[in-house]
User: What shape does this take?
Amino acid sequence: MLPPDDRPEPPGDGDERATIDGFLELQRATVVYKATGLSDSDAARRLLPSLTTVSGLIRHLADVERSWFREVMDGEQGIPYRWSEEDPDAEFRVTEADSLDAIIADYLDAVAESRAVQQRYTFDDLCHGRENRFTLRWITVHLIEETARHIGHIDILREMLDGATGE
Assistant: This one.
């Protein structure tokens, strides 16, 4: 069963920055909302031939936040990711021993780190990594798209696990 829905609504009358940031915040909150109430074993349960699980998707999204905001936007080097060239799917390798609460806490830490980076730049500022090809606006919109896509996966997995559905 899903918890009460207290996710933030994006402003209906906000400027570009408030609207786009508001939609990213809604997506971030939805990741947690969709996973809340699952047991560690259900969150780690593989229902598909791939490594896709609720816990694995949330760990992936934590790495995505760190990659795009800290590494690409802010130019930070040496961020420890779970994946590597040798094992590009490492963040998806979870077991029933992996705590969903710890995985969510790590995701929320990554989100807090991303927010700190976001606040240092305007939407028109170019990133410090990836050959300065992306603005903060582009990165933020990309994170909305990437997070929403994976929320769809989490939504389907959640329904398969316990029948819970919702927005």
In short: The chain has five helices and no strands. Residues 31 and 48 are 20 Å apart (CA to CA).
